[in-house]
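Title: Prediction job returns without error message
Component: structure pipeline
Severity: low
Priority: P3
Assignee: unassigned

Description:
Job completed but the reporter wants confirmation the result is attached to the right record. Sequence as submitted:
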Amino acid sequence: MGFTKEQLEAINKDGTNIIVSAGAGSGKTAVLTERVIRKLKQGVDVSSLLVLTFTNEAANEMKSRIRDAIVKNNLTKQLSL
């Protein structure tokens, strides 16, 4: 997926928490998934991250995408965390 300048800023921002707020279908889940994978590649354990959503449906979608990305990026050690 090609990310916009603003999306890349949210993915790559370091040293602070972020809030991603945008309309339906704008790529929020993709941005947050990419941000989580970036953190994991930097050595951060998934158990030390807090990712919040507003609905159970969104939370389940987020978990599924992050899990798939963890496997795709050979970070499977993180699955047990």
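Comment from assignee: result matches the submitted record. The two ends are 27 Å apart (CA to CA).
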